[in-house]
Amino acid sequence: MLLHRYKRMPVNTPAVLNTFIIHVSLPALTLLYLHDLKLSGNVGLMAAMAWLLFALSAGFFWLVGRWLNLPRRTVGALMLTGGLGNTSYVGLPMVEAYYGHQGLVSGIVVDQLGSFLVLSTLGITVAGLYSSGRPGVAEMAKRIVLFPPFIALVLALLLIPVDYPEWLTVILKRMGDTLAPLALLAVGFQLHLGHLRGNGRNLAIGLAFKLVLAPLVLFLLYVPLLGAHGQAIQVTLFEAAMPPMITAAILATEHDLDPHLATLMVAVGLVISFVSLTGWWWVMQGV
Fold first, then answer.
1. Which of 86-100, 123-137, 239-253 has the lowest mean pLDDT?
2. Residue 199, domain CATH
3. 274 or 186: whose pLDDT is higher?
4. Distances (CA, A) of 46 to 51, 138, 207
5. What domain count does the chain have?
6. Which phi and psi (to 5°) does residue 244 adopt?
7. What pLDDT shows up at residue 133?
């Protein structure tokens, strides 16, 4: 915010950073971490959480959009930021803090087989449908297949049987480590407290859904209805309560889907989540 305020960087800085993140940082992380992913336990329920969350978000914000007569771009931004949680750069440190190092395996499964796959498929589809282009099925399929993180995802799965040389692991880690600082810089550069004016209602609805309503629905589905329990399920539901994904806001911005609201969803949601996550951790102690 200070760099933008004092004009220390060009106005198009977020666009350049977002392009670097999508073409370099995110693919590098995918190639690094998905390659070593080990599957065990309640994998189906863990991976399904992100898909269910996105489906809930799409349905909920479609209805809200019709009810409040919201612009298509606003509905698209809310679907993306309300339906994709920050299960990696906020989620994994939070999981380790609340559930210890042993909880990280479950967190990575939720992130890689859930959130990341949803982002690379349904996320890019919704972004395309709600942007001005309204592309056809063939065009949407092309966008998904050519989406750099999706290409990296396919490569990472194909390369699971192959051992990476040490130099490649080091390079991928160095490139992947750029994601968090650059993504936060891009969000902060676009964040203006003045944008709260006129976005308060939509922001409140979006964060109420992402931080309270959606985790509650998934909790009721997984615990009372399906009878799921254990630390893996606790971590899965804890990840469901994470604030909006930074990359979802970047995707919304790239497609010109109400960038101001998308940025506020990430920034304000991150701050509120420090309180809301503690509440969810307490609720799930008996699961």
1. 123-137
2. 1.20.1530.20
3. 274
4. 10, 31, 23
5. 1
6. -55, 145
7. 60
